[in-house]
Amino acid sequence: MRPVTFAAVAAAPLLLLAACDQLTPAPTPAPDPAPPPPAASTVFGGLDLGQPFTVRGNEPFWAIAVTPATLDYNGVDRPQETAANPGAQITPTVATLTVTTSLNNPLVVVLTPGPCSDGMSETVYPLKATVIRPGETLTGCAGA
Asked: pTM of the full predicted structure?
């Protein structure tokens, strides 16, 4: 029988550690993150509702200046009202903006595609507009 040397006894734990390391599976790489969903389009009836545009009508004269941040309503003999722009709810046939103004009035802007003339300037706009306010419904056009 051979005598066990100090070197053999000292090497045994190192060999065991090396063997254990080979049994541990290599970590699997994390999967690539999923791409973000595509941004919803804000183009409706040929008009980018994410950019500034105006909704207007006459008899009575009124207008709503729409920016990405606000809606500013004004009209003849009417107080100016503002509201934060929540963004349009867009379906294939209609785009709707629904807000409560600075005077605590509900204001609904309904846009439908199709050429629209204001009847005064002969300008043709890409969208028809209906604006619903307390006690009245206004009709007009919308465009950049």
From this structure: 0.71
